[in-house]
């Protein structure tokens, strides 16, 4: 890793190793971790991170899909940061296995977290 | 799926379900399948698909990392298409677990498959 040709950081991760990447909230508190990612096969972009909160917030659901745009990878933490609040998670739109094919759910969810829908943002990211 | 709000196709896939997505070569022949993906945590883009060829080509390696740009998802096939040839796989640059952090390996590999390096193409995809 000391090679001049090495990446400045470990940006690349196997989809098999995604599970367990930590997510930090405001103030560097760990709030949860990535359970898995939802990927658009056409564009090759990550669309959602399904986060696990492990009971931290005492929430009913243990898994929450969060738009990728609401997370930012921080190489110094080797984890993601998010500004998502506990209240946003409590109020998040209900989801099911069919939500990924439901544009209404996707629209409401992106609006809920205050991020631009990925289908409007393809040229900006 | 008949809903007006449904996606026109199942574009979104869980990282947990990536394994086994089929890859077709020229002429609709199945040449292999996706074993897993390599993802850039910063940009949220898939960078490589690690393909399994299952002995189809009688190659020494069973897994080959292929730049994402060398694959194209075809919704009618529910799989990927690629123009990569057997000879390209036979001649592919050697790789190891450290290759993901080796910009030289990445440069050579993208050149080998005739695709633009992702770090040059971020505004075009």
TrEMBL record, chains A, B:
Source taxon at top rank: Bacteria
Gene3D superfamilies registered for this protein in UniProt: PRC-barrel domain
Residue span, PRC-barrel domain: 13-73
Protein name: PRC-barrel domain containing protein
Taxonomic lineage from the root: Bacteria, Pseudomonadati, Pseudomonadota, Alphaproteobacteria, Hyphomicrobiales
């Amino acid at each position: 890793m000391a090679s001049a040709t090495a990446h400045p950081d470990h940006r690349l991760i196997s989809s098999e190793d995604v599970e367990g990447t930590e997510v930090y909230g405001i103030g560097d508190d760990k709030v949860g971790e990535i359970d898995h990612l939802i990927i658009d096969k056409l564009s090759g972009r990550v669309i959602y991170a399904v986060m696990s909160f492990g009971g931290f917030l005492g929430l009913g659901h243990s898994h929450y899909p969060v738009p990728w745009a609401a997370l930012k990878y921080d190489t110094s933490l080797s984890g993601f940061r998010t500004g998502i609040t506990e209240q946003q998670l409590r109020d998040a739109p209900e989801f099911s296995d069919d939500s990924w094919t439901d544009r209404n759910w996707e629209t409401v969810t992106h609006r809920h977290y205050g991020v631009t829908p990925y289908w409007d943002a393809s040229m900006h990211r």
